[in-house]
């Protein structure tokens, strides 16, 4: 089984991936951030490094999907390959931070990859306000995220909502994270686990 967590920067994907992998004994596949060779350069000069960064993410997430397909364990994935193609790359292109030539190349590559992968059995979307995202980003204190612009986060949020509103590829669980603290409050985490259990039971 393949479970995936989607959401904007700072919504809590990595934290929830870790907590759920521990609870269910699932195999976690984390987003390649801290050892990402492009991420710092990207936030310093988005136009120069946008294509490189998106290709790197596409490659690493495709590798995770191949591993998930070949694993006997349930995989829980921190961010999906669809977010890169439907949210981040189009947003960079629309903002003039990725050239049309690079964007078209990226989309062609993604189209070929999409044919060979399956959608998650359950997609968990962490919905968050911009204020909450900014608070969480500041709290974790990653140097390369200091330069993230509010308009960038806002555009991403709009694209996330548009994507989720039309998502039909599998089971979808939406969690509003503004007023919950699943990292530190066991009751909040338990509520999420109960919802996931209900979705998983519906698969069988």
Question: Can you characterise this structure?
Answer:
- The chain has a single domain, classed as P-loop containing nucleotide triphosphate hydrolases (Rossmann fold).
- It has 8 helices and 5 strands; from the N terminus they run E-H-E-H-H-E-H-H-E-H-H-E-H.
- It has helices at residues 13-24, 39-44, 46-70, 81-94, 100-115, 130-140, 150-165, 186-201, and strands at 2-7, 27-29, 75-78, 122-127, 171-176.
- The chain starts with a strand and ends with a helix.
- It has 204 residues and is of the alpha/beta class.
- It is globular, with a radius of gyration of 16 Å.
- It has a 5-stranded parallel sheet with strand order 2-3-1-4-5, with helices on both faces.
- Helix 3 (46-70) runs antiparallel to helix 4 (81-94), helix 3 (46-70) packs parallel to helix 5 (100-115) and helix 4 crosses helix 7 (150-165).
Describe the protein's topology.
Elements: E1 2-7, H1 13-24, E2 27-29, H2 39-44, H3 46-70, E3 75-78, H4 81-94, H5 100-115, E4 122-127, H6 130-140, H7 150-165, E5 171-176, H8 186-201
Parallel strand pairs: 1-3, 1-4, 2-3, 4-5
Helix pairs in contact: 3-4, 3-5, 4-5, 4-7
């Amino acid at each position: 089984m393949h479970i995936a967590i989607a959401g904007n920067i700072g919504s809590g994907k990595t934290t929830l991936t870790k907590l759920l992998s521990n609870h269910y004994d699932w195999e976690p596949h984390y987003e390649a951030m801290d050892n990402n060779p492009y991420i710092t350069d990207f936030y310093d000069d988005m136009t120069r490094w946008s294509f490189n960064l998106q290709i790197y993410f596409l490659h690493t997430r495709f590798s995770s999907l191949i591993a998930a397909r070949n694993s006997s364990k349930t995989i829980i994935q921190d961010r999906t390959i669809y977010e890169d193609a439907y949210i981040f790359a189009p947003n960079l292109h629309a903002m003039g931070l990725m050239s049309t030539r690079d964007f078209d190349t990226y989309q062609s590559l993604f189209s070929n990859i999409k044919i060979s992968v399956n959608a998650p059995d359950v997609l968990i979307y962490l919905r968050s306000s911009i204020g909450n995202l900014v608070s969480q980003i500041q709290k974790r204190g990653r140097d390369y995220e200091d330069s993230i612009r509010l308009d960038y986060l806002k555009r991403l949020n709009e694209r996330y909502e548009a994507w989720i509103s039309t998502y039909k590829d599998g089971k979808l669980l939406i969690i509003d994270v503004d007023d919950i603290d699943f990292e530190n409050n066991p009751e909040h985490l338990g509520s999420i686990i109960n919802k996931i259990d209900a979705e998983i039971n519906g698969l069988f």
